[in-house]
Design a protein that fits this description.
With 189 residues, the chain is α+β, with helices and mostly antiparallel strands. It is 39% helix and 25% strand. β4 and β5 (82-89) form a beta hairpin. α2 runs antiparallel to α6 and α4 (114-133) crosses α6. It is globular and about 45 Å long. 32% of the residues are buried.
Amino acid sequence: MAWLRKVATTALPMLGAPLTAIATLLPEMEFWFPSERLRSDALDRLCSRHLLGDTPRPALPKRQLHGMLKGFADLVFEHGGRYWVLDYKSNCLGAGDAAYHRAALAAGMAQHRYDIQGALYMLALHRLLRSRLGAHYAPERHLGGAIFLFLRGIANPHTHGCYLIEPHAALLDGLDHLLDETVALEHDN
């Protein structure tokens, strides 16, 4: 119970506030993306170009996806006028709080390809905000990013177990293009 209390009451670095201070939230936001002929290698290249810097990561198996991409973001919330996706991770990156430094978090993200997961979560939130806020939506002002909270690292004094994927316009535009391209192919047939 003490550990869970610490997770709920520790200020997350990118927010300057703990989870208990968040009033506007949507748990388990579900999303669906049509993905007819979505090439995994194109998705892999796009995410590798924009996320995690030079951190090595395994390549996605090369294939075309046919159907729908479905996902559930653990938590979507608003704080300070910006909207965020938060995903909880229970991965063990090493013994003790010191193991949850930025480079170790990036390596853990890369190893499991959470970069792709975060990119898709952000795209879902981006599209939701675009549809709800319409012409008033400005991603650089409204979209905070995707926070991956490695729960076991909450006591690390520098990261608190958090890794942030920032909402780069080129990434969001590239994801939109990849998914729109698959829908266009579907309608052409």
